[in-house]
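User: Could you check the structure of this?
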Amino acid sequence: MEQKTAINQSQKENKMGTMPIPRLLVSMSLPMIISMLVQALYNVVDSIFVSQINENALTAVSLAFPIQNLMIAVASGTGVGVNALLSRSLGEKNYEQANRAANNSVLLTLCSYAVFALVGIFGSRLFFASQTTDSQIQEYGFQYMSIICTLSFGVFAQVNMERLLQSTGLTFYNMITQGTGAIINIIFDPILIFGYFGFPKMGVAGAAAATVFGQIVAMLLGIYFNFKKNTEIKLSLKRMRFHGPTVKMIYIVGIPSILMMSIGSIMTFGMNKILLMFSSTAAAVFGVYFKLQSFFFMPIFGMNNAIVPVIAFNYGARNRKRIMDSMRLGCIAAFVMMMLGLIAFNVIPDVLLRFFNASEDMLYIGCKALRTISLSYIFAGFCIVIGSVFQALGNGVYSLIVSVCRQLLVLLPSAWILAQTAGLDAVWWSFPIAELASIAMSVILFRRIYRQKIQPLGA
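Assistant: Sure, the predicted structure tokens are below.
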């Protein structure tokens, strides 16, 4: 058994440590990029179907986004910590630590779900009452949020299982889990929202039910693949005991990542409050933007899911060249993807908005919003990739610093000032302004981490 394990680990090292970086990143990230694009598709389709109910339903789902994003932040942030520790442990040939990281991640997943189940049961009405006085939006929002929170065990376990597969290079199976879950969501969205084929007409609640159903199916597939295909780690009930040092190492990277992504929820909540000063349509436009931008950001996040374990592995193996090659290739690919988004939002914003049953007022507000916000894409790709480098090298706090600077210290204050002084059209300029601050901080912190961690590795 020990000999078999050693062979498996050797094969892993051959791939992560010796395969040419372009081919390695393509082989690991392409399945993730495809699955992320499918995820983006179902996010958009979900809102397209909801918009057919009425604009208030679309606004309610948009206002629920901060809570959905917060769940993803906790799940993915914990996964980033697991990913970095597990991959680094494999690079160092510390297989016992890799197994401890994997088994502790399951326990942390269960704890995270319990917290959000309570939020869904006791906090859904309060959350929407804090944002709007419109009773219909409040009711739609309660229906949606209570379901996605109380049944969120699917998304937490799905992300956890996918991160374990990513950490050992088995990203192809993630394409299957995410793709299957997303397709199920897309299929059941209209069925449950409008009551086709004998199913009850559930409205907004149907959109939430379709979402959690897809997540649960993806979770089950992820569990199957980890037990049957992932030979690098061993999950078992006997090993699932909290190990303080392992949990600490996971969250040294994970907590900054959680906070960084959670800041997105705070920013979205704050922006919704600012936009609701003008109209619920403005908040709906912001929600639509977040759905559309996922087509361009999700592939970059998929690529980052491959970059993190590659850089972490080669940092453990002390290979500076492969670290830098991975980073450069990631930055180039991210820039290309962002330019596609910039072109789309400037050339056909009206076409994109009409998919969401946009009124004339929404078209007027939305076209200006998409064109202005997309100017930030010129620098966004670089900042995203550099953030993943920080995480892979165990300096997730650097990513947190950049995120706080961008979203809390620059974006929200500038949006509020512009709203008070120049009106709604000017609010959207807060995004390009914030991105300039983000790239400045990213460059400063990368130079620091390069001197401290990468340069000393040698040639």
